[in-house]
């Protein structure tokens, strides 16, 4: 679905500060791919490059990020570099950035933000019908209709985060990029939201890339895992294999820093809640 080939990404117009250094990685159809690594290792930068968001001064210095999708309406293959991904936002790719409060407009009610953010075609059946579809969809996330009438500050952090996940999933994109979607939340709420994301992925059979520094989260829900260290991917592979046989010292340290692996892998966890 996405091929990242030897990509070097950084910031700056006059100078260039490297944040991601010669990374190659594939995002496959129908998988949950985890990206782990310490703060500043380049995880968010890699996500922005994969999303094709160059608004932060981000620049791909060398290498390529290419997407391979299928147009849901025509069935035609779409093959594009990340500089053209803006056209694929919503339909094919959606993004849940870090920090719900910084993403949601504090001065605007949720309803307006959700509806205004959707592509025009979603509004073709009329605003009322769309609103009802959103209400039904939010119900699946344990969110009641009155959430739509609220301003972001009137919701808890967990509710805001669920709203963001719901918006990202509503139009059934083929790829959802989630950058630390639950980091600021307590573990109970975190678990609920992650389960929701796993359930969406299993239902929509799309791809979810989950950035988290929490190896426990990766152990529980990801199929494959890439470990970043100082701008590079130091190892990548099936999550179970990386936990069973970590190759890199940094990965070994990350795993050793976990207090105890007491969780179950996603199939069991989701099964319990099905
Ligand atoms: N908008 C920006 N302008 C300039 N430099 C940036 C910008 N965003 C990130 N960087 C730099 O790029 C490097 C990688 O940052 P990035 O946010 O991608 O790491 P991260 O692994 O996601 O960290 P965290 O876990 O703290 O979010 C860091 O040195 C950071 O200072």
Overview of this protein structure:
By secondary structure, the chain is α/β, with parallel strands linked by helices. The protein has a single domain (2-106, 174-273), classed as Rossmann fold (3-Layer(aba) Sandwich). The chain is 35% helix and 26% strand. It has 10 helices and 10 strands. It has helices at 43-51, 100-103, 110-117, 127-139, 157-170, 187-204, 215-221, 239-244, 249-256, 266-273, and strands spanning 2-11, 17-27, 32-37, 58-70, 77-81, 93-96, 175-179, 207-211, 224-229, 232-238. The strands form 2 sheets. It has a 6-stranded mixed β-sheet with strand order 6-7-8-3-9-10, with helices on both faces. Strands 2-1-4-5 form a 4-stranded antiparallel β-sheet, with helices on one face. Helix 6 (187-204) links the parallel strand 7 and strand 8. Helix 5 (157-170) packs parallel to helix 6. The longest helix is centred in the last third of the chain and has 18 residues, at 187-204. It is globular, with a radius of gyration of 19 Å. Residues 267-274 have low confidence and may be disordered. Adenosine-5'-triphosphate binds next to strand 2 and helix 1.
